[in-house]
Amino acid sequence: MISGMLLLVTFIGLIVYCMKGGNLLVGFIATSILWCIIGWVPLHIVVTDIFQTSVENYGKTIAIIVFGAWFGRMLVDTGIAGYIIKKTVELAGDKPLITTLLLSIVCALIFTSAFGVGSVMAIGMIVLPILFSLSIDKKTALGAYLLAVSGGMYLNIAYVSQFFAVFKNVKYNDQYIQFAVIATIVHVAVMVAFILYNYSRAQKGGRARAWAASPAPEGKVSKNLRWDCMLVPFLPIIMVSFFKWQPIPSFLLGIFLGLLLTGNMGSYSLAVEKIQKTLYDGIADSGLLIGMLYSVNIFQAAAKQVSPILQNMLGGVIPTTPVVLLIAVCALAPLALFRGPLMIWGSGIALVSILQAMGVFSEMFLFALFLIPPVAIVAGACPTQSWTMWGLSYAKLEPKQYIKTNLPWAWVILIIVEIVAYVMIGNV
Questions:
Q1: Which of 155, 192, 210, 236 has minimal CB crowding within 10 Å?
Q2: Are 350 and 11 in contact (CB under 8 A)?
């Protein structure tokens, strides 16, 4: 009983720490050590299973994340992403609403494969000035762009692979891809409704105006490329989905073709320079994320050791019916904000570990349940997301205004996609 109470106290402490913006890597490792002490976990298990084996076993997924970030950097640095955006703007003409809709949909498609904070920021530095110059108000422009970024994450192999650290038996297979396609369509449909509503409201209120913004990075928009380079962002998904390739060779093929079609393979020295730079930048983009994911593995291994204590303490408190738990997550979705208990890459990892320790819910159901809040709520409405903090600073928008604008729409996305996830992949 004493051990259980101490574990709950540290669990609550971790939630508070995460919601106040504490460093996740430090928080997870510190809590892991405390849980090992409270649970009287033998020292040889701590140093071998918890801090060594748990990290070693995550090597495959880390490789996918690194290659995904490398691919994302290649799309930006070769000008492919900027070229696609440029052609989209030309297609829309001088119609602000049509341009905003098309750009947002195109960005959502780009981020089905592009990955990493650097890629989001670099593409944002192209898209946001265009939207600002078209008199789209700041909250609509930034909100639409970040909803577009999150809209691509369901299909993004590198992003989804992060969850394999927690849900070891989940696979990026045909069943998941079918769900992800529908989830993406739902997300984009709500995003379109968001744009239409806020644009119409701004026009009626007379609040639309052009905002001064820095121009897009030189060479990222104006470079004239071949039309077929626009197919490169979707190559990894095509190879995995239709040709059943593994993610890493799919990313490598995309990187090679991206460099080839943009003229960066014209000479040996140019190819080596571009390969080294994009790889370096991709690893830099994902370095902190990888450290956090390693700490998640360590924390989950520690939670597994103390799971009998947690199960005895909370077995009669937490709902044991999947539908009830699904309703609770949908109703309490804002608890994913500020790294709260519904955000798995925050204090939510402790809640997931407890639910896993109970042994009541299937792994696929918990995966379906906790996949959505980081995408819909956090990536789409939370100011603590790293690229969102950059966006708020770039657009000079207050976090409260951003949450007020995006959260209702993100909440709608979560509810719909959670139900779809439960039916398609969680109810198996």
A1: 210
A2: yes
Sole residue written with tokens 């592009």: 114
Q: Give the range among 30-39, 125-134, 295-304, 415-424 with minimum mean pLDDT.
A: 295-304
The model carries a pTM of 0.87
Distance separating alpha carbons of residues 51 and 36, to the nearest angstrom: 11
Residue type, 44: H
pLDDT at residue 208 above 90? no
Q: Are the CB atoms for 147 and 409 separated by under 8 Å?
A: yes
User: What's the pLDDT tens digit per position in 110-125?
Assistant: 999 888 888 899 899 9
Task: Report helix, strand or coil for 207.
Answer: coil
**Cα(239)–Cα(278) distance, integer angstroms:** 22
Total residue length of the chain: 428
Q: Nearest 5 degrees, angle CA 345-CA 387-CA 403?
A: 80
Look at residue 314 in the predicted model and tell me its pLDDT: 66
Helix, strand or coil, per DSSP, at residue 8: helix
Q: Which residues of 188-205 are buried (b: 16+ CB within 10 A; e: fewer)?
A: bebbbebbeebbeebeee
Residues 62 and 115: beta-carbon distance below 8 Å: no
